[in-house]
Amino acid sequence: MLLMTSTNVSAPQTGARGQGISAGLSVALVAVFAALIWVFALVPPIPVGPVGVPITLQTLMLAFTGMVLGPTRGFIAVLLYLALGFLGLPVFSGGRGGIGVLAGPSAGFILGFPFYTLLSGWAARFAYRRFSGAGRVIMMILGSLLTASVLLHFMGIAGMSINGGIPFGAATVADMAYWPGDVIKTTVAALLAVMVLRAFPVLARR
What we know:
Layout: H1 2-18, H2 23-41, E1 46-48, E2 53-55, H3 58-69, H4 71-86, H5 107-130, H6 133-164, H7 168-175, H8 179-199
Antiparallel strand pairs: 1-2
């Protein structure tokens, strides 16, 4: 009788562990990562190109957010970050805030942030489940660059062309200055994400 009681008590606990991240932890992670994106935006930006769209560390944190939280939670975290910024908090690079940022040449990149994180998370989840070792990291990097970065840069080019008042071709050429840094930042994000997911395997169940 005692053995049966012990078995019945322990079974739900095992099931609970198998469910992965709880709703409360999900909310906390979304809030923490939204705050971390804000922190990375505080690093002084480096304006480049004809319309001065800056190089920032935000893309590193955006990719890392998607890779660690997964596509859905990462997407929500970035939406929260953007909502705070559009409400006027100085969360964007250079301490900017307010809906007026969408009138600037960085608008395309800003609007692309949540989709960049979504695709980075999707690519990372695919790579993490199907590869191991160095191949896992390489596929996370390539997957993010070939999906998330391509979309983000296309939206960024459109924003520079429309709001910056330069031809689409000129904006495309200007955008090339951001690619080397994005390759480096995506690589760092993938390496850090793999370490975090190994240390906290519950995050990989998303």
